[in-house]
Amino acid sequence: MTSLYAPPFRMPIAARSRLWLATAILALPLSACTTRSVMNFNRLDGRADAAAVAQFQQDDAICKGEVAKAQAMAAPIYMGRSLADAMEAGMKEGQRNNALRQIMVGCMAQRNYTMTLMTVPN
Q: CA-CA distance, 18 to 28, in Å (whole number)?
């Protein structure tokens, strides 16, 4: 009995390893081009003297403590054993990170700071 289909193409191992190496080398510069967003807090009154800097450090520590407290009280996120469970866990983690960011922004707003997002290279 003859088959109507051609046999599957099998790339030699040496060629496969060269392909993976070339892919990794080409992907390396792309990872260096990524950016991330950081929160930058500014006082509403525009002060930047030494007392304002000391007050900012105190307010920042208090608000980071509030975020840590909220994070400690949150239920754990389980990854599960399937790809769907891992994807769902990733979405829940993203939602949790957004909620924690909002806690930080709200806490700093109560202390008369505004937040701006700054994009910085990775």
A: 15
